[in-house]
Amino acid sequence: MTSLIQIITVFAKIGAFTIGGGYAMIPLIEAEMGKRGWISEEELPDIIALAQSAPGVLAVNVAIFAGYKLRGVKGSIAATFGTVLPSFLIILAIAMFMTNFQDNPIVIRIFNGIRPVVISLIAVPMINMARKNNRTWWAWLITTATLLAVALLKISPIYILIVIMVLAFAATWYKEKKEGLR
Amino acid sequence: MMDIALIFVQLFWVFFLIGIFTFGGGYAMLSLIQTQVVTAHHWISESTFTNIVAISQMTPGPIGVNCATYTGYEVLVSAGASHATAVIGSAVATFALILPSFFIVLAMVKFYQKFIGNSLFDGVMSWLRPAVTGLIGAAAIILITDVSWAGIPGLSLPRFSIIRDNFIDWKSWALFAAAMVASMKFKVSPIAIIVAGGILGLLLY
User: Fold this and answer.
1) What pLDDT, on a 0 to 100 scale, did the predictor assign at position A88?
2) CB-nearest partner of A88 from B94, B172, B202
3) Which of A79, A157, B132, B142 is the most exposed place for a label (fewest CB within 10 A)?
4) Considering A133, A149, A170, which residue would you say is the last residue of a domain?
5) Do the chains contact at B129 and A46, CB–CB below 8 Å?
6) E strand spans, chain A
7) ipTM score of the complex?
């Protein structure tokens, strides 16, 4: 059984390198949880779908779900604590000692290098997930439509997920009825 | 002293509500925090909040959590509390922000585990999985380019403008491509790639 200390440590590592928003956490989850066998490529989209459908901070929601998978409610608490701890300490250090952090030339140079790299890392799990899970033309159509709706039309992800849930429910229901299963 | 106690209660309540009503990630959360903390309660000034947002985006960790931690601290300092008290303010704001998600996500996990394997639920998930893949792709695209599309599909083409904050020059693109190759082809861990990006940024800029 995975120990709580191990969950806290791994999620603290993930939290410390989640730079620039919740989606930046996904490649870290994929790598750090994947190599420990805590999660499969098939489970990753399920976790993100649920985390995105709940209110609050995406990365925290992912941690709650992933932690629960490992050790139930205790695992959730450990994973959330681990995710939040590094940022909490870093922010406090900045608030107390270096209020002009964002104007520091060395910091600016480091982050000029980190930003494009993080964007690249966000794109990688998208490619991995599409290759592993999109087995039908229909799945590719949903992926493309969602991508365009968010990037081009700037529709909020939550509305897209709700619409897809309703349509998928209706379509599955209809299909089962037609096949005489319902 | 009474004032400080009142601020703690208000801080908890405000961030608890923000935790319940934010859908759609960190940026939606920032404007909600701003409305409450700057406009409604006058706890901190507009310029302090702008600083908080800049720092929240640059430091590791989820933006919403960073912003809550920093705001909690600043609110107490602005009210004349000691630094130690302000640290508790940070903890209160962060805890309050996370608390609602905790119960909601746990309920959803139970629901998920109960219904996985049910044909109807699996049918819904089989549509949601490719949608999530699209969401992640969109998150990457939005960080690369801003798309403006004024007009009717087919009549006008969307206009793309590169996000200059993220892609300053050709070196940014080189780093972007190198990270892609390192991750996809050589399976280098994301942490190693981020550290390398930081070091190269320091050397190149």
Assistant:
1) 93
2) B94
3) B142
4) A133
5) yes
6) none
7) 0.85
B32 touches chain A (CB under 8 A): no
Chain A residues with CB-CB distance to B90 below 8 A: 88, 91-92, 95
Nearest-by-Cβ selection for A68 from B56, B91, B106: B106
Same domain, B140 and B186: no
Same domain, A38 and A85: yes
Average pLDDT, chain B: 86
pLDDT of res. B54: 79
B-chain residue closest to A147, CA distance? B134
Question: How many domains is chain B partitioned into structurally?
Answer: 3
Q: Do B22 and A17 touch (CB under 8 A)?
A: no
Interface contact flag, B66 A109, Cβ < 8 Å: no
The answer to whether residue B191 is domain-embedded is: yes
Residue A129 to residue B51, Cβ atoms within 8 A: no
Domain of residue A43 covers 4-133
Domain limits for position B154: 118-162
pLDDT 10s digits, B54-83: 788 788 888 888 889 999 999 999 888 888
Task: Reply yes or no on whether the pLDDT at B28 is more than 80.
Answer: no
Query: Which A residues 108-127 touch B at CB under 8 Å?
Result: 108-127
Judge if B22 and B95 occupy the same domain. yes
